[in-house]
Specification:
234 residues
Length: 234
């Protein structure tokens, strides 16, 4: 059995999980952050070389209540501060990437530990841990097309093909996605998530809300995926 080499997680359901317990949304986000640590560690233990984690869309961080947005930013800041101290980053040669418009939208205070983490791990080569923050796949594709247009003056005879497009994506250093896991029981896509890289992905939707998505369930999904033969449209 072979495990997927690139797994993407969309952790939906923090607010609903909290609401069912009579708690504010902030409680759900805090518990969701704790679960993120558990699942990321499990992925590391299972030797998954590429893990991408959806943090928030642009609308998540601009269109919710000021109280919730402030708490989300606090959660991100504290999470990345903790991640900076994790010895596993060095031990397992993990390169951390953070993709999206967070540099435009996040306050400097929240940006700092993220920037420090990127700088600290930029030379690491063995594994990739990627976070999507203030991310929208449509923004990625628009910027990709604009960069290709701008490059044509420098390389006018270059052919626009799949390889060229991939080389201009935000995800150009990541392999195609093998598996996308979305929790929360709502089987819809999130803001054009990595639309180029998920072309051949296997999709797994679970009713479990993110704070309740256990390591055991995560491992079971990976093992089930490893048993399925990939046909790639054949």
């Amino acid at each position: 059995m072979s495990l997927p080499q690139h797994v993407v997680i969309i952790p939906d359901g923090n607010r609903r999980w909290a609401k069912r317990r009579g708690k504010p949304a902030s409680f759900g986000h805090a518990e969701g952050a704790k679960n993120t640590e558990r699942v990321l560690k499990a992925a590391l233990d299972m030797d998954i070389p590429n893990l991408t984690f959806w943090g928030c869309s642009v609308s998540n961080i601009t269109e919710r209540s000021r109280v919730e947005i402030k708490f989300l930013l606090f959660v991100f800041e504290e999470y990345f501060k903790k991640l900076l101290e994790r010895k596993e980053l060095e031990e397992h040669d993990i390169c951390v990437r953070v993709l999206g418009r967070w540099r435009e939208i996040f306050p400097k205070k929240t940006q700092k530990p993220i920037l420090d983490l990127i700088e600290k791990t930029k030379s690491h080569k063995k594994r990739n841990m990627t976070f999507l923050l203030a991310y929208d796949g449509r923004d990625e594709m628009v910027e990709t097309i604009q960069r290709i247009v701008n490059s044509k003056s420098q390389i006018p005879n270059s052919k626009v093909d799949r390889k060229l497009i991939k080389n201009f994506l935000w995800t150009r250093e990541l392999p195609p996605v093998d598996l996308v896991i979305r929790t929360g029981g709502e089987p819809h896509w999130s803001a054009g998530l990595m639309m180029w890289d998920v072309a051949e992905s296997r999709l797994h939707f679970t009713e479990t809300l993110w704070p309740g998505f256990s390591v055991a369930e995560f491992k079971e999904v990976l093992k089930d995926t490893g048993k399925v033969e990939r046909r790639y449209g054949r």
